[in-house]
Amino acid sequence: MVVQTELSDAEVDRLFHALADATRRDIVRRTLAGDESVTDLAAEYSMSFAAVSKHVAVLEEAGLVTRRPDGRKRLVRADPKRLAQAQRLLDAFEQVWRHRIDALDVVLTADPRTS
Question: Known NCBIfam families for this protein (predicted)?
Fold first, then answer.
């Protein structure tokens, strides 16, 4: 069973690489609730502004957030549509897994006397 996806392999790689980091997942969570400035985001972490900005750039490259200027600030907002794409991909992998488990269950519960 092959998993069909609306994303290219490179996009999937960027998406899950971006989500592999706890700080980036937290940034996505925070920006799903509403726009956050990079400065406000940086204030919550024990790292430099530049480091947080790099995390935001990774998320932006993966399509998980957008950044837009607002005066002197740069506001970050999560893209729920991209998260939904990730969820659909994970759902497809789950279906593959369930199909294999069901097939294994059939083999393990088969009566060897009837074969």
Answer: HTH_metalloreg (NF033788)
* Rounded-to-integer distance, Cα 42 and Cα 22, Å: 14
Q: What is the pLDDT of residue 110?
A: 77
User: Virtual CA dihedral for 107, 110, 114, 115, nearest 10 degrees?
Assistant: 10
Largest alpha-carbon pair distance within the chain?
A: 77
Q: Count Cβ atoms below 10 Å from residue 65 Cβ, excluding itself.
A: 25
**Alpha helix ranges (H) inside the chain:** 9-19, 22-32, 38-43, 49-61, 80-109
**Structural domain boundaries enclosing 78:** 9-110
**What's the token pair of residue 73?**
């600030």
CATH number at residue 50: 1.10.10.10
Residue 3: inside a domain: no
Classify residue 21: in a domain, yes or no. Answer: yes
Task: Return the pLDDT at 1.
Answer: 46
pLDDT by residue (tens digit) across 55-67?
Answer: 999 999 999 999 9
**φ and ψ at residue 79, rounded to 5 degrees:** -105, 100
